[in-house]
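Weekend entry, working from home. Most of the wet-lab plans are on hold until the incubator is repaired, so I used the time to fold the two sequences that have been sitting in the queue since the last round of cloning. Logging both here for the record. First:
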Amino acid sequence: MVLRSRRRDIRPTPTGPRVNRDIRAAEVRIIDEEGEQMGILPIDEAVQAAEDRFLDLVEVAPNSDPPVCKIMDFGRYKYTMQKKGKEAKRRQKIVELKEVKMRIKIDSHDYEFKKNHAERFLLDGNKAKVTIMFRGREVTHPDLGRKLLDRVANDLMEIGTIEQSPILEGRNMTMILVPNKAAARARAASEAKEKSAKSASRKVEEQEGALKAPLAESLEKPAGEGAEPEEAPPESTDEQNTEEGTADAEA
């Protein structure tokens, strides 16, 4: 019996939707560029309808019966999809593994300092690797290292969960914490609320400044500025004084 290769039946998977003459269906359901239904048309008529509009016929639902095609500008459509993909990739958070190192005989001040570092890593959306470093014969007491890691996990339990339980590797004991999604959402909401409050406060300050400006200008003007000056009384002359004195004497 001769075995025949089935490779000829394997078709390459397209990297995108079929367009125009590449659509294989005999008839398709058409949606125009405005989103209106045009009914079911033979593929040739459908392609011609797109060409009459100087647009493309794009197969958007190949598994429907008949396949659904939409009339659109395929070049612009591809550009928009690529732009959205790049934007989504840019916004995607890259999770990093940040490390905090401690020793068994760490004092309370250093412990709080290191713990706060791990807390910040988790709140930023990164993983926190906590490493206990043993010196000399300290490695014979792994229970002390595990106890310290348990303390860290307990102090950070509201914002982080254990992804990797404490394990001893040589002279180091490590534990990995991952961010608590609920805590991350709460922090994002808190930051958004704080940003909104700052924006509202800034607007209030701008409005108050706009109201104070005319008042300040009016206070800076000298008293009486803007009013017409009063006319000074005419000065009396010696001749007028003499005439007035003569009149008084005759009287």
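Second, folded right after the first finished:
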Amino acid sequence: MKDVDRRSLDDDDSSPGSRSLGSSAVSSGVSTPATSSTATATSQKTKIYQEGGDFSASLERLGLSIPSHQQFSVMIHKHEVPRKVFHVSIGFLTLWLYTIGVQFEQVTPVLFTLFIGIGTCDLVRFQYPAFNKLYIKVLGFLMREKEVRQFNGVIWYLLGLVIVTYIFPKDVSLLAVLLLSWADTAASTFGRAYGYLTPKIGSKSLAGSMAAYLVGCISCWVLYSYFIPSFSQHNRPDDIMWHPETSNLSLKALVAFAGLVGAVSEAIDFFDDNLTIPVLSSSFMWLLIKATSN
């Protein structure tokens, strides 16, 4: 998640231009006909699409504001609690599926089906405003305001998971999911809370990157020191890429590198981090383990 300054998303529709417009109308005592108001509203909608401006205010003018963001502004709009809970839960769900022996070839088709389904749903809602309003009314608590008019971040999340589970070995893919689920959430949480106290790294903060590093280390340690050896009966010969017997990299070194990979992947500000984090982290870890193998 990007720990960027989101104050502009919390502003109300009270720009100097709108205040002066309203005050001049009142002072002049001029009443506007209904047809004129309709035409003005239509031109305003067109202008919003063309010129942008304050995003929350723009959505309200278009009738596309997210109700849950207004009702629970601190929990949902500012801290994104439901969205973060969803992200974190994916990591726990992934580990649980691993412990019961579910293989990636069983999961990848499901992820791909969800990717196609949700992507199609987004294309439909962009074309039909009534459906879009219903969509954001039901699922708005998991959305950011920019996703009202853009593709849902879940789409890129699913695409990232499809790519890593299809291409990379099981342990590398599992670690990538944990980095996306836990390290990225930690970066967003601590970046928003304490980012102003630390230097910026592009659009990210050092506080967020440090949190991503620490949680990335913990995730790697938990995966390789407990889950993989404890449930090895579910692993086939080529499922696990890193073995202490066949690698020049110790577990401690692997953990340190995994934390660094998580922090760097999260800090790279390119496209959508729901896609870039799992793909980049998997690629980096695969290259590292491959290069240090006996």
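Plan for Monday: verify the second prediction. Residues 76-291 form one domain.
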